[in-house]
Design a protein that fits this description.
482 residues, four-stranded antiparallel beta sheet, single chain, eight-stranded mixed beta sheet, 14 helices
Length: 482
């Protein structure tokens, strides 16, 4: 162990060592029970005589700050509660107190938060979490080994900020095939999840006072992110066709939407509404952010192409992620950025983190190219179909007196609006008592008054558990209605 002690000049050498060691002990840099270097070693490190260091140690021992143990050495003897506690600034004490207070008031909705084993319910309708048991671990492991080999053969320099060419090409093929996105590899910017893509868009387009239109109810992390950049966030209501385009305010610079699977209600944006949105964006000269977070899973009707595929003016930024298909902890997303902002976003990405980890990029590129991603999507699709049918059977059967499902054709969550008067807080509380985690839509609303509704994520709950969980919910609703 080498202590940070500075000796200045040639006077009071033992005193300099003594004072600096005492300060280190009192401030906690030398913790109780920690061993200090032998006097001979410290003297050599400092270029002093052993006698000088021994004198400093003796003074500290007399003050009971150090204690010698025969055969072991010299140790710090300060009780933890005897050290003075230095003043630590609170957020309100700092010059940036207001913005820090803003951040401290933000939180993710309960249905989207990390749930630890100690608080997890046996039957949990948590949202945004894909099924895990069916993930092809063996195939992914081989892809990771490929990524390690590729990384090991690299020249040891930073990679391209936009992403590895192999992954950008794989993403371009995937979204062109599955979502009809018009792009090439040159249009793809690889990000650390979709959230970073939204952050980069906000960095290059939003400044204090900018108007950003978001769906209400909508995705809270996006709204909070835009507000953190100083935006004036305009809450725009949605109806059964999607965002109310006629209510998007003049001056909007950015319009954030989830057209394939409105979050959190679930209905798709109608073709007519999509056309109207693009016309409105053209009038405003605004960028439309199309968050296509989980539309790989579609269950009804003809597939509908992305909003980006309808864009003839270069105004739509298509944002996607692999977290909802593969693993939430994978943290790889992408954005197909319009030409007008692509270069600026790349620069912002480079300033933020230079590039996404290359080993993961190599592995994901191989995973896509070898067909594992499409196979996994098909496998999960069949599982989600079964879970979705069980939810619909209950909502159209035993639970029909209290709620009805919002029509949805994609994703792996659905919302159910209440058709009977129910104390929602009490329902959630009583469900927890029988090990069922329910979530309301309250936290997804911004300006509008929340409508009584439940959010059912069915990625993290097993098919056999859905019937049991909803049976318990029915029992609670029956008792509350008595």
């Amino acid at each position: 162990m080498e202590l940070h002690i500075v000796i200045e000049g040639n006077k009071d050498l033992a005193g300099q060592v003594y004072r600096q060691l005492r300060e280190a002990i009192r401030t906690g840099r030398l913790a109780p029970g920690e061993q200090v270097p032998p006097s001979r070693l410290l003297a050599t490190q400092l270029g002093l005589s052993r006698k000088t260091v021994s004198e400093a140690y003796s003074r500290l021992t007399l003050e009971k700050l150090l204690v010698g143990r025969t055969g072991s050495g010299t140790f710090v003897n300060t009780p933890a509660d005897a050290r003075p506690k230095p003043k630590r600034f609170e957020s309100r004490d700092l010059a940036a107190g207001n913005i820090l207070a803003h951040w401290l008031k933000q939180s993710f909705p309960l249905s989207m938060r990390h749930v630890g084993p100690e608080t997890r319910s046996q039957y949990d309708f948590l949202g945004g979490i894909p099924t895990r048991r069916q993930f092809p671990q063996a195939a992914w492991r081989q892809c990771v080994l490929h990524g390690l080999r590729q990384s090991g053969e690299s020249r040891g320099v930073y990679a391209e900020t936009e992403g590895l060419p192999a992954l950008r090409e794989a993403i371009a093929r995937h979204v062109s095939f599955s979502r009809g996105v018009q792009c090439t590899a040159a249009d793809v910017l690889v990000t650390n999840g979709a959230q970073q893509a939204l952050d980069l868009i906000a960095r290059v387009l939003v400044e204090p006072g900018s108007v950003v239109a978001v769906e209400d109810p909508g995705y809270p992390p996006a709204r909070v992110l835009f507000a953190a950049q100083g935006a004036e966030v305009a809450a725009v209501p949605v109806d059964n066709e999607g965002i109310r385009v006629d209510l998007i305010p003049d001056g909007a610079r950015l319009i954030y939407v989830t057209p394939a699977h409105q979050f959190p209600l679930g209905m798709p944006m109608s073709p007519a509404r999509r056309e109207a949105l693009l016309v409105r964006a053209r009038e405003l000269r605004a960028i439309v952010v199309e968050d296509d977070y989980d539309s790989e899973f579609r269950y009804e009707g003809r597939p509908m192409d992305s909003l980006q595929s309808m864009d003839q003016d270069g105004l739509v930024a298509f944002v996607g992620t692999f977290s909802k298909v593969m693993h939430p902890d994978l943290r790889v997303g992408y954005v197909i950025a319009p030409p007008a902002i692509r270069r600026a976003m790349t620069i912002a990405k480079g300033l933020s983190d230079w590039h996404t980890p290359t080993m993961t990029q190599w592995a994901l590129a191989r995973f896509i190219d070898d067909g594992h991603l499409q196979k996994h999507i098909r496998r999960c699709h069949d599982i989600y179909v079964a879970r979705r049918e069980k939810l619909h059977a209950a909502l159209n059967g035993d639970l029909k007196p209290w709620m009805r499902a919002v029509p949805t054709v994609a994703g792996f969550h659905l919302a159910a609006t209440m058709t009977a008067e129910v104390d929602m807080a009490q329902l959630v509380r009583l469900a927890r008592r029988v090990d069922v985690a329910l979530y309301t839509l309250d936290e997804f609303y911004y300006r509008l008054k929340p409508q009584p509704a439940l959010f059912f994520g069915y990625g993290a709950i097993e098919s056999l558990d859905i019937e049991v969980a909803l049976g318990r919910v029915k029992t609670i609703l029956t008792e509350l209605s008595a």
